[in-house]
Amino acid sequence: MKRSTPYLLLLPALLFTVFVLVYPLLQNLLNSLHRVSLIRGTGDWIGLANYAKVFEDSVFWLAFQNTLLYASVGTLISLLVGLGFALLLNMKLGRITNVMGFVYTIPWVISPVVAGFAWKWLLNDNFGIINHWLISLGLTTEGITWLGDPTTALLCVIVARVWQFYPFAMVMFLAGLQAIPEEQYEAAAVDGASTPGKFFHITLPNLRSVTGVLLLLGLIWSFNDFNMVFVMTRGGPINASMVLPVLVREFSFVQFDLGKGSALSILIFGMLIALSLLYLKMISRREAS
Amino acid sequence: MRRRATVLLLLLIAALVLLPILWTFATSLKPLPEVNSYPPRWTSEKMSFRPYVDMFFYLPFATYTVNSLLVALAATALTLVIGSLAGFAFARFEFRGKNFFLLVFLLSQMLPGASVIVPLFQLLKEVRLYDSLLGLTLIHTAILLPFVIWLLYGFFSGIPREVEDAALIDGCSRVVALRKVLLPLALPGLGGTALFAFLGSWNEFFFALILTTSDTTRTIPVGIGLFVGEFSDVWNQMSAAAILFSIPPLALFLMMRRTFVKGLVAGAIK
Amino acid sequence: MRTILKAFLFAGLFAVSCSAPRDGVELQLWNFGGLPGLIEWVRARADSFNATHQGIRVTQSQKSWNMIRELLYTNLSAGTGPDVMNVHANYAAEFGGAGFFYPINTFPDFEEVKSWFEPHLLESTRYGDNYYGLPSSAIAFTLVCNKQMFDAAGIAPPRTWSEFRRAAKRLTRDTDGDGTTDQWGLVLLGGDRGGFSYRFAPFLYKAGMNILSEDLKRVEFDSPMGVQTLQLFVDMHQIDRSITPGFLAYQHSEINDLFCSNKVAMSIEGPWFRPLVDQKSAGKEFYTVPVPVPDHLLSQYETLPTLQDMVMYTISAHTKHPNEAWELLKYFRTPEADKYWITEELGAVATTLEALNSPEAASKENLALYRHELRHARPWPPHPGIISIARNVITPWCQKAIVGEISAEEAMRGAAAEAQEILDGAQ
User: Between β-strands C56-63 and C25-32, what pairing exists: parallel, antiparallel or unpaired?
Assistant: First the structure.
């Protein structure tokens, strides 16, 4: 068998990766070091000036903070919800769990654009059904301006994101739960373990690798998620829900400063690499112990 | 008693989960002046399926649907073929640079769309694939490959080598063994992965928006975006389009649910 | 299974390669946005052009107005894109100046075509010595007042800032007695960054101010009068509470919904408001009046300018068929075509003299008012960076002041500093 077989097998995939990773990465790197705009095209070398412009832009720091919140809180809550639903569905109450299993995964199948608009309509402060219910139930006297208030806008986007992402976590957890050998529970029962005890000492440890995978994927995907924020708030109000991917679009396509947009792209890329390396280090350290 | 409480809880959760979709569906049945009335109501007078018909006259949605289908199916096929090869390579071979290549595929998910779009756009223009279904297919394939490879790698790893070893003893080469033995066994995983890829392409909006420009190559998500005009938003037709748009993936998912779950899970939990 | 999938792949490839070459000249026309009526009209006009011009074939494509900048950027920088498209007239400075739009004054019959249009409207398509497009439709920003609400309260539409503030306050009330306000005097388009600045600028102009200096080198909107203009809105929101609380998220459709359900009494709008309201609540009546002026300038009420905006049809500088594109451009802008802006509710004002002076024009609601306002209206200053300044500097700073995060003075100072950077430097 030829030594080169695996490389040949990888070749087609690598070709695609060159186009979707290597070439754009290099192009972005190049652009970030020059003055590039629609008006003047690619201009002179300006070294790290674009990066400086990004760091000096107060919206960048706001977006950075928001993106961290969006990614971490969004992913964590999605995992919690997913786990909760998985535990619920694992109780195997017959056909109802089958049906609910399908129903609970529906949000994931819906297009993010559609989801964004649907949540936007629900949260409309005058015409949305959520405020209407809150007022009818007496929980509040006037409608809450969900997407119009800088303090609640990001929260709303996170809720929509959780709605979209939790089914993925749920499905993974469910399969993980079903893979736990019965013997472990039986042994624990023999030892007289309580239900919470079983949960914390058997269920959770068995789900460790699934959780790890979900966290990494969830964080990376949320970090780069453009659609939800764009459709619901465009980054508003007054940049309160601005996240880094939407900011790249602002720089590149609205301000037409491709140099600045590329610099931000490289920064995002660097952040994600750092995140992944940190994460992988944590995983290997835990496996070593 | 405990069972009944649990069932009730399940139903309540289902209602909450479906809330956005139910509201969208309700909106899709209302005439435009009734959408967003005060106080908000689930029903209005003169509800009908009119918007579902009107939307095909407002924009050529029949064309968009065909385009979305073609691109999604082609991208799924291409991704599965190329992804299987790569996943097989990772699962069955040890070679120098294996971890490096794994990392490369992981990294290729880390550039945001807005960063990739301009170089890709210029590239497609160079090779004259701009504003073509083929170009969009290739881009979607490239986007979907990393995760698909990872899934299939995991799935292939989960199938014991002994199965192919038996075939190898009989004289097949590794690659033939792949085709004749491993793939049939991996069919559930492949099916699930295919659904994932189809979904990814079907719902994709950003690249489709920038990389296609004429009605003949437009896909549904981009078409839906057009309902949001500069001054007026035809919410009811847009909701109708959104509901119709969600039906094919839901139907596929319903049919392939078990295989999908198996594929996703086995692939991701190594 | 796999063979079926492969078959689809090839089907897709085949479908794509099926673009048979055609004889004659092919032109691409892009239409961004517009009301449904306008979209219909553009399609019909393109078809009619194809029918009457042998040898030229126009393919019309409808595009989202919200993505106009992405689409223009990616296409123009790659040398592709349409032959003819409609854009904001103030893109003449940004794109025309950079050589992306075709200078139509180089065509031999330009002088004759020029005479079709209201002279000072045509000037808006000029940058430097070149004209970069033909005016399509003109907009002047005015104040619309909900007739039902105003009549019920016995108030007349306001002319001065004091009257404006008082009217808004009077019309902010709790209508159903449950203890919470459910009706407001004024709504602002907070959710659209460009749009918000377009509603603030008229007040600056009506206060007799400039946004930039004549030579476009210095910022002038941060003068004491400018701070006072912003302070008006700050006070209305913070003290009177007469501005709708959720305005930061509102787009056109929210404003329409609020206005039609009588939850808001006034808005700053343009000629599109009539067809917009008719979509939701046909025939709902409202007063259209000029944007209010500061109290001390009441004597100049008739002549103070409001903000003018205009859409123009332009030819791409990359076009391979400039002469045919010019034919298409003219066809879309003949006085006969322009008449549709008079007879149909297309959402803006006609721009040719013939249409504006036609007998049909006399019966069009509010046309007299818009013509009057347009006579004195001024567009945004023709600086390539003005759009950036309007949406990325003026809007966020003003919004921050209105919601009370900073004072009006701080906001104007901060905005002026950032705007000055844009004027001085990089772009």
Answer: parallel
